[in-house]
Amino acid sequence: MTTFEIGIGSVVGLFALLGMGVPVAVSLGLVGFVGLCITIGPSFALSIVQTAPYSAVANYSWAVLPLFVLMGTLAASSGMTMDLFRAANMWLGRIRGGLYLTVIVGSAGFAAASGSTVVNSVVFTRLALPEMLKYGYSRAISLGCIAASGTFAAMIPPSLTMVIYAIITEQSIGKLLLAGVFPGLLSAFLYAVLILSMVRLKPSISPQTRHAKYTLKQKIHSLKGVWGIVVLVILVLGGIYAGMFPPSAAGAVGAFGTFLIALMKLGLKKDWIMESLENSAAVACTIFTILIGGLIFSRLLVITGVVSQFVDFIAGSVQSTGGLLALFSIMYIVLGCYLDTASIMVITLPFVFPVIVKFGIDPIWFGIIFVKLIEISVITPPVGLNLYAVLSGAGKDADFKDLALGVIPFLVTDVVTLFILIWFPRISTWLPETMIGK
Amino acid sequence: MSSDRSTGYVDTFSRLGALLSGVALLLMMLIGAADVIFSKLFNSPIPGSFEATEALMVVSAFMAIGYNQFKRGHISVTLFTSRMKKTPAGVFRLISHFMSFVFFFLLAWQGWIYGLHSLEVLEYESGLISFPVYPAKLLAALGASLAALQCIADFVRKVREIVGNEGAS
Predict the structure, then answer these.
(1) Which of left, alpha, beta for A140 (phi over 0: left; psi -120 to 50: alpha)?
(2) How many CB atoms are closer than 10 A to CB A263?
(3) Which of A192, A203, A248, A292 is spaced 20 to 30 A from A49 at the CA atom?
(4) 3-state secondary structure of B132
């Protein structure tokens, strides 16, 4: 058996274990370990198992990951989303299709504190859907709008997807986070344009407004509950941009700021604090365990030479950057139907990233394209992760057919956004290039 | 009855592990924020905050693995198994628990060797202050051991459930 055959066998074995429902982290770690035992011997394989898990986690730059998770969880339990939603609703509610816009703006705002697309979708389903149905908005478009707007969390910093991409590809976390700002805003803007056009073309999706009228004073007063998130964004992103502190410290500052806001709103009670800590620890642990398994697996891939053969094969069969991006786009959208974001990244990036480097593609720009593809994959029927998050949040208020239909206009818009991001790399690369603290 | 009690104990230990994991995360946040505040406002960073963050992150990540296993929080692909009947799906779940046990056992076994060696030589990381590394390494091994134990508890529970179902039908 050649090492290359072992490598291929490992990939097949990995998918077999995944199919049997074995956890992704365990599948990656075990297949990696067995493969290493065969190729370089059990004692060397055991030494990798001995050192890799600890060294994978004990890395200061990765502290940003659990801290961003904590920031998002605290933001969700603080009720900050309710304030955001109320404020957006006061300003936009009377426009035709205003509640759709409220969801888009509110979700983009919450994405500035949360990094998980699933959390965003669930929170806004509970918050906005009953209101939308009460005012007679189209059920399908409402569901689609909530699921699609939930994906902003992957692009708008602090984004967990971006941090994991940076960790696996060894890129600057700060640069990647900043690179997501304009693409995230562009996505939100194009969704808003889509809604305004749809309301004009098909007025039945949004009834004539019966919303209460608010005075300017009331509207300005509603922003009182939003200042916290604005201060946090300025602190976290401003701090990274100005080079005042590294992303991990920004994560601590962001989480601490959110903690203080939650403390002011909810008081010093044991239940929300313990619940947020326990949930965040569990989510961060899930990602870390996958990263540990992935590290053992990727050692195997490197040793067997599968990666370099894959790079040569792709370089031989695809000639242009456009062709390469098209190929990877299709691959990620299909994979997104079966696997969650962290697993997709851990499994594919060890193969894909060397190809990107070989083609001379800017890794930061590719990171943005990659995140956009992930955003698309989590809302692509039939198995997109965000669709299920919305369904679980909506309970009896939703059925899958409605949701799958309602999300299509947003998917089309996302594909347009993807093309814009591919066509104009400066949208992604300008901000990180101008950052002061490189 | 006694196996009921032992799986119950394991669940409680996993829960305690998650609690410790959460507290480690809270400390990471407090130390990180205090370090930024002290270094920016008073120009005096907290010595050892960098090393403490790394150590706490290890504790936080490893001590929650068992609880995640208990809560079935580890991500897996359920596309095929969710469509199976109860008994075959249960068998696949058993395989999954067994595989998880093997993996976490490997991590625990090697982790203890790594941690005990670190304790033996009293390993320190030298930075602004010398920071002990061995507690985090030992806690990582403990976390992986808890996870392996939780896999056994889950396996036993699943076997009882399958046998119970078969008996009932």
Answers:
(1) alpha
(2) 15
(3) A248
(4) strand
**For residue B24, what are the contacts with CB-CB under 8 A and spacing of at least 6?**
A281, B56, B57, B59, B60, B63
Phi, psi of A113 (to 5 degrees): -120, -20
Q: Structure tokens of A265?
A: 């709103």
- A416 and A171 in contact (C-beta within 8 Å)? no
Per-residue pLDDT 10s for chain B (169 aa) are 466 777 788 888 888 899 999 999 999 999 999 998 888 888 888 888 888 999 999 999 999 999 988 887 677 776 677 777 777 888 888 999 999 999 999 999 999 999 999 888 888 877 777 888 899 999 999 999 999 999 999 899 888 888 876 655 5
User: How close, in Å, is residue B106 to chain A by CA atoms?
Assistant: 7
Q: What are the DSSP calls for A16-46, one per residue?
A: HHHHTT--HHHHHHHHHHHHHHHHH-HHHHH
Q: What is the pTM of this model?
A: 0.84
Contact in structure between A277 and B26 (CB atoms under 8 Å): yes
Spans of all domains in chain A: 62-276+305-434
The tokens of A370 are what? 């990659």
What's the complex ipTM?
0.90
Q: For residues A347 and A292, is the Cβ–Cβ distance under 8 A?
A: no
**H/E stretch holding B124:** strand B124-126
Burial class of B114 by CB neighbour count within 10 A (0 to 12, 13 to 18, 19+): buried
- Kindly state the tokens that stand for B63: 């001590």
| CA atoms of B145 and B121, how far apart (whole Å) | 22
Give the C-alpha separation, A252 to A247, whole Å.
9
CB atoms inside a 10 Å sphere around CB A45: 22
Nearest residue of A to residue B117, measured between CA atoms: A50
Is the distance from CB of A141 to CB of A154 less than 8 angstroms?
no
Q: Which residues of B are less than 8 Å from A17 in CB distance?
A: 99
The neighbouring-strand residues paired with B126 are B130
